[in-house]
Amino acid sequence: MIDNDDTSISTAAILDPSASNTKQEYQGSRIPPSELIKYPFKTLNRILDDLKWSIPFKNKYNVSLLNSKPIDYSSDLSRMSNNKQFNHDVLTLNNALTYSPSLEKIEASPMKISIIRGLIVDNRANENIYHFRIIVLESITNPFITNSIDKHEYHIIPKSLLSPDDLNSLKVKPLDEGKVDETIFDDAFYKSYNSPHNQILRVTIFKKEFSKEELLPFVDQDLITKRYSGEVDNHPSLSPDTVPNVIHCFKTLIKVLKGPILLNPDDSIKTISLKNRSLSATIDVNFLLQRLSFSISNDESELVPPNLVLLPDLKESFIRMIQELIFLGRVYSNSVETNEFQTTYSYANNFSLIFGAIPEYDKHMNLTQFLLNCVNEVPYFINLSIMTYFQDEFIIKCFENTVKSDPANKLHYVDSLKSVANYRVGTTKLGTYIKNMTAQGELVGYHDYVDAMKIIGISLSDPSELDEVEDDVVIAMYKSNFEADPKNYQYYNNKLQMIAKVRQSSELWKYINNEVLPLNIALDELTIEEITEDDVVITAYEYKLNELAQSSGFVTTTSEIVFLNKSLLSVAVNRKSYLLLNYVETKLPDIIRIPKEDITYSKALEILGVPSHTSNDFEIITSFQAKLSLNDRNDISSDIRILRYCLKLIAENKKSEILFSFLKNGKIDPTLLPAENWPAGLDNIGNTCYLNSLLQYYFCIKPLRDLILEFDEDLINLDDLNDKRKIGGRKVEDLEIKRSNQFIYHLRYLFDEMIHTQKRCVQPTKELAYLSFLALSQPVDFKDPNAPEIIEIKDDDYDFDNDQIMSNQSPQIPIVVSSESPQPTGDTEMLDADEQKLQPEDDDDEAIEVISIEEPTSFPEYDQMEVVEINKGPKLLSISTDQMESTIEVGRQQDVTECIENVIFQIETALAPQKLDDDGEQIDLIKKLFYGKIKQTITPVKESDPTVATGPSRITLERFFSLIINVSDHPKSIYDTLDNYFNEDLVTLDEGLCKKSITVNELPDILQFHVQRVLFDRERLMAYKSIEPIPFSEKIYFDRYLDTTDEEILRLRSEVFQWKNEIARITEEKEKLVELNPETKLSIIDTLKITKKYLESVILPHKDLSINPTTIIQLENLIEEYSNKLVQYNLRLVELHDKISNQFKNYKKVGYTIFAIFIHRGEASYGHYWIYIKDPHRNNIYRKYNDEMITEVSLSEVFNFEENNTATPYYIVYVKDELEKDYVDPLKRVINKC
Predict the structure, then answer these.
(1) Could you tell me which residues are beta bridge partners of residue 868?
(2) Exposed end of the chain (fewer CB within 10 Å): N or C?
């Protein structure tokens, strides 16, 4: 609301009408249009309606209608308008009185002034009178400019914006600071935005001039008679029979007031003789002296009226007094037989005088329809300052002006405009305007906003609280809804854009601009699959683009083509495909939303984290990949589109062909890399892809590699220990030692070749593969010594030496940085044996299992073994050819877990123990590297109070080789699995209720997670592989799982357990609400909605059918109740998951770093293995070891958690933080260049 009461105007700023005639140039108010438009907008019609309702409204709400925005009072005014107890009229005197003009026009170049005066009366109490005055101030310009315009666009302005000259012209009385004019009830100033004459309005409401006490001597006949009788006693000339009445008194007072008003500046003041007894007989002279500023002449013979030329405010007061007396004269007409006021004077209540003085295009409609108008009964007309009879063009203009002046309430103005359109059925222009603007997204109303929030799942009982909902909650609910209903993604996305626009949320717009179409939607649009090759994706896109272009007349901006383009971008970004992104950047640059103007060369270096002095292309690519791996949706700088643009800027600046090539296909020419800078690959000798991955893994563990390379059985004496030591819980037989020695010798030979070869890859011996695959329970048939054979390791035909690699004729074997790699010819079946599981008592359904080493049967004795010595190295024993021929078949049927057990058992069997544990188990390097211990504590407790123990605790310690993640439990992360296993729980055992707690007693140096993916389909009676993604991070911390007495950690564990129970409960309740009926395929909410709609549209209107209306109300209440429940469930789940993820964020003392990830691609019955290994000595790059091919890959490929990806982690390996660089050493090459 504009406050015009507290703004003081200095008296020096007002032109004194009594000052000298020295002419000064008139200085009008200068208000720039850009500033004026910011002030509340009103039409003349709205101002006049406000004038009519100002008295009762301000008296009830203490709010000025004239100075307020219509939207601030529309609801209250509408209620008041519908209340018949309020009935005021705005009256103007029809008689043209020079001494009390209803319309007065003054021209004083360069300005002209029109003054309209009148009354506001309460029809229920006629004595309740207020005065109004409207002053119209305009400049005198070209006389040929018409005064009539379509509609004045008025804006409420504070008087502080007006110049002193304008204030003087508008009769603003100078006041001392802090004081107000007590005669004014309300006062407002308006400036017309579109007036050609710079029109300014002042609308003032004055309080009545005469108080009840002041009127009493004029209207009380007894007092009149008494006063007259007193004068008769003093002056016998007065007839006692001619007693005046109220009309005589009013007429006499009007005559007294008229004289001073009509006095011209040059005239002398006309006095009134005190000898005029008729004056004193009808008027109390003291009233004139005390109330009307009259005075007595020096000789006390005459009354001297005030000089109103010098007192303009008093003059206005006199004029109002006459207007008030004339109206009161008509009111008191019933008490007098002959009343001149009733016959002589008349009033108009149709605002005709005002509409005539301020002409507008719709003047005639205003004169005939204004009083009949019912706009005040509905708030939406008031909000827009319009009348029901306005033309569509005027309504649209009023809407636009209102929004410009008050954009914060645009939502409500849009709702008002739509309500007006519904009220005015058949308004073509208005309907077309709404339709077009809605299509452009420019007409979003508050109801649209509330509905949009409901659609994405946010519904509150009090809609005003919607703005308090955080943006991240809006995003989470939006994602939840479109992911549950992907076919309607565009519908939900449109609603999110509407919400972002309404909330003016930079956070939501940032999300929308960075968001790409969900991959499944994009795949459906392109009619491709997840596994479709990138080049085929481009073909599919171009084929559909051609179809759409032909159907649209080759207009490329249709919504269908735009959606197709966004689908291609989605596939490119989700895959992080260099080929597709390069295609999009080349062919469709407009859909790559990058703030290019904000990214300079130096900014590009900063975003990628590349020092300005760096010249090494490979370090730049590594930094690029590291940044890409962050995959932070809240950080726009980790968006692959931004990162690629940065890399392109750097490539252009450096003129680097390596970087340009990398941008096109994500590959680097390996001929640029010398052999000693790259690990050696391993040939696949027949279904050995998993074994190759395992051997590369063990090679990269420096302590283990050094142990293998330095192994010599002659230096180890196990004779005294064989009867005591145990491996995997059992004793070791002599023949097992001999087999194990041979295994290590073959492994030593392989490792030595991998270090010293000049070739791209080496070939494991078949003996090594055989010993790795063959079950420990199976005997080994060594070759008869009478048929000696030297074991010779041959190169494959496609191997080539270092010289070939460096030559120009060398084959181009690229370093692949994409998600695909060459498929080997051999496939390995992915089987899971019945691993022995670490099972606490009476607990057979845990998510984490612990692999123990399988105990083999005894070996047969061998008569004699042929010893073959190669280059005075390890003594290798031959294996018969018959057995060797079965190696491939063994590899095909071998379980990968059993293979690990074979390898580990044989290494450990050949080693001398560092010590023996209490149970006789051998403690050695293998135990230190890979084995930990789990502690299980069972404590009997009281059923009534589980915090009270009833007996001693039973503690069990068990070793674990790897922790099993069971995919069937649907863990959201590794932490999710660990939290479910390492916790406290109440279980019922033989001894009654017990508290069971599981913690980690000892941790290995290298922590291995085995992801159990092979499940059994009971319907199809077959095994299948689950490809459910399990997100894992580069770091994992075990503080929370250690055996501890720390009360804080124990408390935090307990909270997580409670939250997970709550998540399970809420999820179960939520499933009941969204579960589809198998017959109707509808949820309970959808069923209720359809039922309600059917009853309303079919049953209610039916003449022969009926239904209790309360039934529909009950259905509506149930729909709202269930919908609100669903919203609350979703909000709570988001909150709980967030709490769990942050519960232990400050506990990071016992940390592990990712080391290796074994990958299986395929199904349960077939597939292919490879391994990713991080090199902490080479900028933490990741290499993909895929048999003979070793390539550097992007972090996005390693940490790929996309759904429907069949290349899934099978083994995830971490190493202790403090040991990473000492233990992990993937690149060990020593090449003798002769």
Answers:
(1) 876
(2) C
Residue type, 146: T
Helix, strand, coil share of the chain (percent; to 5): 45, 15, 40
DSSP per-residue string spanning 943-984: SS-TTSB-S--EEEEEEES-EEEEGGG--SSHHHHHHHHSSE
Identify the helix (H) or strand (E) that includes residue 1156.
Answer: strand 1151-1163
Cβ distance 107 to 140 under 8 Å?
A: yes
Which parts of 649-737 are beta strand (E)? 667-668, 681-682, 726-727, 730-731
The 3-state DSSP class for residue 20 equals coil
Pairing of strands 1006-1012, 963-966: parallel
**Nearest to 666, CA basis, from 734, 771, 576, 756:** 576
Report the alpha-carbon distance of residue 225 to residue 742 in Å, rounded: 143
Question: Two tokens at 686?
Answer: 């027949």
Q: In this structure, what token pair is assigned to residue 969?
A: 């439990």
334 burial via Cβ count (<10 Å: 0-12, 13-18, 19+): exposed
Say what angle helices 410-423 and 446-455 make with each other, to 10 degrees.
100
DSSP string, 177-219: TT---TTEEEEEEEEESS-TT--EEEEEEE--SS-HHHHHHHH
Cis status of the peptide bond prior to 110, with omega within 30 of 0: yes
What is the rounded distance in angstroms from the CA atom of residue 66 to the CA atom of residue 48?
9
Distance CA 708, CA 904 (A): 12
* Strand pairing category for 1151-1163 and 1207-1216: antiparallel
pLDDT means per 10 residues in the chain (1234 residues)? 54 41 78 94 95 93 95 93 84 93 90 94 85 94 66 94 93 81 94 92 95 89 86 76 86 92 88 80 87 90 90 93 92 74 89 91 85 84 92 94 94 93 82 88 90 90 85 90 80 89 87 81 89 88 91 82 89 90 90 79 89 79 81 67 91 87 74 70 84 94 95 80 82 85 92 89 88 81 56 41 36 30 39 39 39 38 41 67 60 66 91 89 93 92 84 91 87 83 84 89 94 82 83 90 86 81 88 87 88 82 78 88 91 88 86 93 81 90 88 83 83 94 92 66
